[in-house]
């Protein structure tokens, strides 16, 4: 069995990998502080997956309480506001791992800014005056930056997550990509998963299969997950996007997310953070 | 109901590649999408590196008891992954026919806690005193060890720096070793010495200056090689070298040619006639000394022996530095244009120097628990390696196995495929290692015979990356 691996990419970024977890880390600041921070993240990473696996069976069930590990608690906390629909803490696993590694990276260190990118679910860290530009890729098969989001210290955003039916995770919806900006990566991850589930429509060409048939251990059990989406007529795309947008707006009104960007077959919808709407009016 | 359960039992395998232990049904992949269940077998979807026509890429040496000389296709350990606990059979135990003999290659990626790099830097420039600390980012990653002929040697890594010091020391050491082993450059400083940029297969860069040539020999050897070619063109030749400076007419080589003593006494300590130690301090000037004016090593010119018009060549051991002097009426050396016949011999010194290179040998101990992935009786594997029945390779490259106990091996990283090395946070290096031996011998040493799979099925079931021969 392979253990947790860490390596430095030629450009200096830190790469962490263990089983299904694949993380890229970059931090800015004094070189010695950054190295110490990377060391702290590596140390935290070494045992992280084993801790998660210890509670994996419970994490694959609809959310309840009583989790012991810090990552498991982050996952449960992130999905709890959504418990009216079927959701398990696994909906926030990637984001929660990113948040946990970010906390280890910056603890006691002078880091100007940093990101921890766990397969597209990203935890952010800023000090005053700092910002990062994140790109959104809607279609993994034709990767191109379709939208960008500049997130700064002043924004109530420390997490970005993207969900869709094509990725490694399973989706009940048909969105190519739903990107959510939220207070933490775990919160963004859970919200992106559920908004992507909401981007949906009835169309004979959409193929769905019980989740278990694709991944034996799936937390989604017999729920139908999307495996193929044909070219859809414009009215079906609009219908699916409007359902997803409504769900994103509901989450934003509830204070769960800051912004969302939805994409389906070349059409996009954005749910902007209120601050940006105001600034665009005044300018 | 019982029928369904039976079906589950046969269709689903449990992946043990990581702690998640995914259950994977036929045709599915695990949570990582790296491992999948293909026809009931767990396969890795990442490419496994395969050397095609290994004979051309890395020739196998003929070993006497060794029958299966060459595998036309040789599976390397790169991407083979490893298993844990150790006693589980290695990820790939592959059989293939070579010259009609069934051979088995056990392919794994070994984690080497005890490992280091021996770095040979072809230069006579002073890099630092023996035993001096070699540092990267201020952390000690190794030391200067005994110099070799025309080369300075560094011993880097090792368990003491990897895990015996501070965490930062371990991480910096591991990172530097990984880069060097993967043929990437590393900038290092030597206490009381130079700043050196080392990259396997490239010229060393000492204090920002790329080294060009390795010296043809020491000063004395240079005299010994070129003396007959100077005869008749020079009255004296002084080959400046930090190790042994040679003075032609005093040297045995000059005497043998009946050359007239020139009466030029150089500084330093006389070893034997015409051979002088320590004519100057070590440095980055002529022949690894600190001088830029060659006359500064001349202590005196004996008026009773020397004569006006005497022609003197002073040259370094690489031919990079050379000057031509003629004694005037007062026996003072006067710099003059070097005659063409002499310049030719100077150029020949340079021509006979090999290009200065850095070479990196990985050294590590494979005699520990990873043997259990090969056989249930680990000491038999060790003996089989010692008896040259089992051939050990790293990424297809030949290794030297040290005599004595264990399987302590050395391998030239330049002969291994690119990016062969990885690491674990221990910190320790991970590298491919293959044990190849006749099938019958594999059975005899207690091999995991149940796990042997034919080569064709590995190539069929694994994603493979073919290396150009």
Number of continuous helical runs of chain B: 10
Shape of chain A: globular
- What radius of gyration of chain A results from the CA coordinates? 19 Å
State the distance separating the first and last CA atoms of chain A.
Answer: 58 Å
Helical fraction of chain B equals 10-25%
Structural class of chain A: alpha+beta
Q: How many domains make up the coordinates of chain A?
A: 1
- Strand order in the largest sheet of chain B: 16-15-14-13-10-11-12-9-26-30-29
Overall mean confidence score, pLDDT of chain B = 81
Low-confidence stretches of chain A: 276-283
Radius of gyration of chain B: 29 Å
Please supply descriptive tags for the structure shown above.
heterodimer; A: 283 residues; alpha+beta; T-fold; nine-stranded antiparallel β-sheet; two-stranded antiparallel ribbon; 8 helices; globular; disordered C terminus; B: 469 residues; eleven-stranded antiparallel β-sheet; seven-stranded mixed β-sheet; 10 helices; 35% strand; elongated; disordered N terminus
């Amino acid at each position: 069995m392979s253990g947790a691996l860490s390596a430095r990419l030629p450009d200096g970024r830190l790469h962490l990998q263990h089983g299904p977890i694949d993380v890229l880390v970059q931090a800015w600041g004094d070189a010695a502080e950054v190295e110490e921070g990377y060391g702290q993240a590596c140390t935290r990473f070494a045992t992280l997956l084993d801790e998660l696996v210890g509670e994996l069976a419970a994490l694959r069930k609809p959310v309840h309480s009583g989790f012991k590990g810090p990552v498991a608690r982050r996952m449960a906390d992130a999905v709890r506001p959504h418990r009216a629909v079927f959701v398990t803490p696994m909906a926030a696993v990637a984001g929660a791992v990113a948040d946990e590694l970010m906390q280890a990276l910056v603890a006691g260190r002078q880091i100007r800014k940093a990101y921890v990118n766990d397969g597209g679910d990203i935890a952010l860290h800023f000090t005053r005056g700092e910002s990062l530009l994140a790109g959104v890729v809607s279609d993994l098969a034709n990767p191109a930056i379709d939208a960008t989001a500049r997130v700064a210290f002043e924004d109530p955003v420390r997490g970005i997550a993207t969900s869709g039916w094509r990725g490694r995770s399973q989706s009940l919806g048909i969105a190519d990509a739903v990107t959510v900006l939220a207070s933490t990566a775990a919160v963004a991850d859970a919200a992106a998963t559920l908004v992507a589930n909401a981007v949906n429509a009835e169309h004979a060409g959409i193929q769905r299969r019980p989740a278990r048939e694709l991944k034996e251990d799936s937390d989604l059990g017999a729920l139908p997950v999307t495996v193929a989406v044909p070219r859809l007529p414009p009215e079906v795309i609009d219908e699916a996007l409007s359902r997803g947008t409504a769900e994103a707006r509901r989450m934003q009104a509830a204070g769960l997310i800051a912004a969302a960007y939805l994409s389906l077959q070349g059409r996009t919808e954005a749910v902007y953070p209120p601050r940006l709407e105001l600034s665009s009016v005044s300018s | 109901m019982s029928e369904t359960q039976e079906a589950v039992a046969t269709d689903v395998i449990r992946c043990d590649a990581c702690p998640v232990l995914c259950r994977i049904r036929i045709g599915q992949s695990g949570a990582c999408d790296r491992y999948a269940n293909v026809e009931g077998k767990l396969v890795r979807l990442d490419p496994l590196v395969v050397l095609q026509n290994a004979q051309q890429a890395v020739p196998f040496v003929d070993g006497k008891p060794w029958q299966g000389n060459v595998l036309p296709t040789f599976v390397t350990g790169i991407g083979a992954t490893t298993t844990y606990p150790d006693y589980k059979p290695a990820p790939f135990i592959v059989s293939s026919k070579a010259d009609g003999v069934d051979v088995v290659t056990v392919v794994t990626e070994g984690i080497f806690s005890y490992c280091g790099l021996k770095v040979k830097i072809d230069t006579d420039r002073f890099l630092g005193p023996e035993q001096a600390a070699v540092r990267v980012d201020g952390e000690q990653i190794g030391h200067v060890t005994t110099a070799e002929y025309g080369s300075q040697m560094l011993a880097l890594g090792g368990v003491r720096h990897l895990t015996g010091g501070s965490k930062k020391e371990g991480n910096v050491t591991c990172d530097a070793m990984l880069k060097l082993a993967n043929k990437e450059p590393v900038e290092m400083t030597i206490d009381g010495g130079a700043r050196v940029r080392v990259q396997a297969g490239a010229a060393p860069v000492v204090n920002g200056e790329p080294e060009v040539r390795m010296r043809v020999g020491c000063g004395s050897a240079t005299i010994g090689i070129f003396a007959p070619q100077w005869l008749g063109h020079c009255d004296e030749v002084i080959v400046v070298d930090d190790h042994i400076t040679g003075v032609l007419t005093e040297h045995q080589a000059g005497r043998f040619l009946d050359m007239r003593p020139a009466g030029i006494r150089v500084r330093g300590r006389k070893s034997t006639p015409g051979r002088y130690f320590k004519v100057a301090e070590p440095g980055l000037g002529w022949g690894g000394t600190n001088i830029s004016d060659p006359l500064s090593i001349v202590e005196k010119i004996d008026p009773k022996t020397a004569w006006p018009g005497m022609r003197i060549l002073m040259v370094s051991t690489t031919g990079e530095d050379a000057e031509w002097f003629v004694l005037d009426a007062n026996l003072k050396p006067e710099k003059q244009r070097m005659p063409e016949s002499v310049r030719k011999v100077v150029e020949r010194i340079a021509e006979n120097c090999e290009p200065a290179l850095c070479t990196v040998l990985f050294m590590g101990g494979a005699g520990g628990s990873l043997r259990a992935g090969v056989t249930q009786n680990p000491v038999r594997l060790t003996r089989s390696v010692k008896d040259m029945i089992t051939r050990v390779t790293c990424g297809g490259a030949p290794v030297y196995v040290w005599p004595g106990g264990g399987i302590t091996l050395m391998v030239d990283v330049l002969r291994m495929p690119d990016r062969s090395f990885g690491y674990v946070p221990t910190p320790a290096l991970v590298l491919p290692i293959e044990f190849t031996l006749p099938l019958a011998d594999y059975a005899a040493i207690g091999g995991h015979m149940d796990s042997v799979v034919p080569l064709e099925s590995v190539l069929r079931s694994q994603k493979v990356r073919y290396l150009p021969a």
